[in-house]
Design brief:
Blueprint: H1 18-21, H2 28-38, E1 46-49, E2 55-58, E3 62-64, H3 67-74, H4 78-90, E4 94-99, E5 102-107, H5 110-113, H6 149-153, H7 163-177, H8 183-196, H9 210-215, H10 227-241, H11 251-254, E6 256-262, E7 265-270, H12 272-280, H13 282-293, E8 297-302
Helix pairs in contact: 3-4, 7-8, 10-13
Amino acid sequence: MLNSVGYIRLSRKFFKSDYWNRKRNFSQAEAWLDLIQMARFEADPAERTLPNGRQIVIERGEVHASLRFLSARWGWGLMQVRTYLRNAVEKHQITQRVTQGENVITLLKYDVYNPLVFENNTPNNTPNNTPITHRQHTDNTNNNNDNNDKNDKKVNESISLSRAQEREKFLEILFFEKRIKSVVPEFEKFFNHYEARGWSDSNGKKITDRFALLRNWEVKNAVFYPEKLTKNYQKIYDSAKGLKVDENTLFLITEFYGYTERNGSVEIVVSKKLYDFLEANINMFKPNLKSIIGESKLTYKLK
């Protein structure tokens, strides 16, 4: 029986081998592996100058790649690339943003695939089930990223949240504090606006508290949820975080699509995945659901 626990260690030389570089149409599994190996490993952001002279910043765990580039690299049509990336977004594997007209992909669990330091902080004495790392078995003369090895070991994890954690906090603020229905589009509008400005204010000063910035963000033409919904649904969300689930519980926000009260009934619009999750844990969530609907009848609409 194959062991499905832990990780394997794969040399980055593999991606320069004839096996990998043979001309072919990539499978979906190969495309995913390719995104992981292309993503920036270093903790410090990298500034890249575009042909038009503008600059973009690439963070750890991000891939700067156009759809046309991926299409040619993977041997896929543009529509196939779009569908693949859209499905990865829906599965909460990646996010996408456009900065200075350039497509940037963020791998949401990149720190799981490529931790900056190992459990014992000694890369040469790593257990077999230690997650794969960008650095292991790499030819030190192969690329100039190796100059940052010493800096990587000095990373202070308290300096900043990872991009995935930051996105999660942004969405929580929009849903539970600002009570906005269309949280994902509003998040993208906010993020792309300040990303294009380099996260600086109108005077060019760097913004240090992005969460406070979002709390003061003016939302235009939005539909808002009632406070009794967001207040009690946050208790459900917090309880769900305490469960042992196989993935991030952010789908409780991103796959909650609507809430309507009419004629003594409450209709909640959710994905099939979220509906199944709520029903599987109904005994835990029932008191908070009761606080939301009161004496009304609860119905679900799947989207």
